[in-house]
Structures are given as structure tokens and as C-alpha cells.
Amino acid sequence: MKTTSHQHMASIAVLAFISVLTVACQSGDKSPKDKPAPEVGVMTIQLQSQPMETELPGRTAAHMVAEIRPQVGGIILKRAFTEGANVKAGDLLYQIDPAPYQATYASAEAALQKTDASLASVKLKAERYAQLVKINAVSSQDNDDIQASLRQGEADLASAKAALETARINLAYTRIVSPIAGRVETSTVTPGALVTANQETALTTVQQLDPIYVDITQPSSALLQLKRQLASGALKKVGENATRMRVVLEDGSLYAHDGVLSVTGVTVNQSSGAVTLRAVVPNPEGLLLPGMYVRGILQEAVNTHAILIPQQSMSRNNRGEGTVLVVDAENKVELRTLTAERAIGNQWLISKGLSAGEKVIVEGLQKVKVGDTVKAVEVAAPGATSTTQAPAVAAGK
To answer: Which of 196, 244, 264, 366 is most buried, by CB atoms within 10 Å?
Structure first.
């Protein structure tokens, strides 16, 4: 009886083992080909119009600078301005002791009056002699002498007038006024100081700060590339109007007023290989001071057939070339080598390697490899966080 029970239990165990083995075999029969294709997010390349902006380093410079020097010598009687204040053109800055120049002016004025009186007498005599010589009442020699005296008197009168004008100018120069409107700097002299005409040391400096210049430097190679692209039609000019420039301050903030590019340098710096560009920028609040470091953003042209891809979609191979994964017409992953011209915010501007209509993988890159069949799902193209463009960046060919 025990033997029959043991045989029954052994039969049950064998049947259970065969069932497990059958299930395992059936599970192992599934082929990897039956697995669903991995899903990846793709962005379909579309041509778009992209402003080509370049951010360049620069420094501010005063629009006008006047170094104040005396044009006559003397003792400074007073300083008529507050250091650091704004002055207008014609405002008095210094007063030089005018006493000796007033005396010189008075002397020149008296000399003019004396010469004028003498000339009047000679003129009347010359007129009489001119009539008398016609009737031989006086000799021709006497008439010639008096006519010569008249011309000499006229020359003396002109010289006296010039001397008086010189004295008047020198007297006016004792009032040292500002030739321009602007902000006056610190004074190098105090009342009581002796100054000389056209001395080397300036008494002070007046700088016009509104508007203000921003001088930026651009590599000559970048300027040459831009001209070639414009000539070939790859880029289009922004417009016939003056190129506008945005200013980024030292702390990274954007300045409130845009400038206008006024001058493009015609000489390349031999040491740096750069060309200087000058923009005129409004400065009504006086925020910009001469010598400040800033960055200028220029919109130079517009690329009407731009191709942009997210930066995270591009990697590099062992040769440093830029590469992306694309999905072909058969939904297979393909490796593509490309050239990125420059960064635009969080995107790359592609100049070679991609064309409109192709699908670039932007999500799920870690799940696939070249040759895999995938399920492509269109995702929204991430927008650039900034339109500021860095200088051209080589990303492989």
C-alpha cells in the first residue's frame, strides 16, 4: 500500500517538472526580432530665416575730449567749476589775472587813436597836393612824398588795429572757458598757481559722454568671411540703414539703449589681426563711462536658409568631428558627419552635412545605435534661449 502511494507522488512530481520545462522552452522560442522597435524623439530639419549676430569685445570712449590749457600766462585768480560736474560750452572754468592784459589793451587802443589822428592830417594834405600838382603849384617830388606818407600812415593804422585785436584776444584768454559741453574732471591747479601759455600739463579735462563711443574689435578673418557670404548670396544684408548694436555691460546685463555703427576701420592691427568698429551709443543717464569694458552685439546679416539643431543632439567622434544620428526613410538609424558654423543660444547652426526634411534624433540617443530600426516620434524643436551668437566654432567636417 505504501509503494503505490510513493509511485503516485513521484508521477505528480515528474508531471510538474515537464510542465515547467515546457513553459521555459516556449518562452525561449521568442525571437529578438519580435521585440518592439525602440521609440526615439526626432526633429525634422526645416530651413528658416536666422539673423546672424556676432558678440564682440569693446571699450567705451568719450564722444569728445577737451584738455583745458591756458593760452596766456598769469596767476589763477579763481576756479569757477565743481569737479565732476557737468558744464556747458562757454562756461567759465578759470580766471587768470587780467590786469596786465587790460593795460596792454588800453595801450594798444591809445596807439590806434594816435595813428588814426595822424593819418587824418596826412590824408588832407595828400588831397591838397594832388590838386596843386596839376597846376604846378607844388613839385611832383613833394606830391610823391606826401602820397607815400599817406600810404605809410594807412599801413600804420592797420598795424595799430591788429595790435589792438591781439590785445583784445589775449585779454579774453584770461577767461578760460569750456569749448564743449560735458563732464569736467579734477583740477590740477588751485587759485594762486602760475600758469604759462600752451603748457604741457592740462588744467583739467572736459569729456562729452552723451552720446558715447563704443569701440569693438572684430577679427579680419571673420569680416572677410562675412563679405564673401554676402557676395555669394549665402547671406542677405539686414538693410540699407545703419547697423544697430546692442551693448552688454560688465555685469552681463543688457544696456537699455541701442547704438548705431558709425565707422568701420580700414586698417588691420598688425599685432592682433583685428579691425576696429565704432558705434555711437546714447548715454542720457551717464551710466557708461570712458574706459569701461563692454560687449557689442551686431546683427550683420540674415541667413535665409539656416539649419538649426539642438546642441544635445550633436556629439563628436575621435577625430573631433561633429556627428548626429538621423532616421532614414526605412526607419533605420544612420550616423551623419556635419559642420557646425557657430552656436546660437542652445542650438548649433549647421553649414554642411544636413538638408531640409531629414529627421535628427534629439531624444533617446542612449537607447539606439547605428543600424537599429526605430520608431520615430516627432517632438517640438527646442527654442534657442538666446539669439546671441558666439564667434564661429569649428565642429568637424
So the answer is: 244
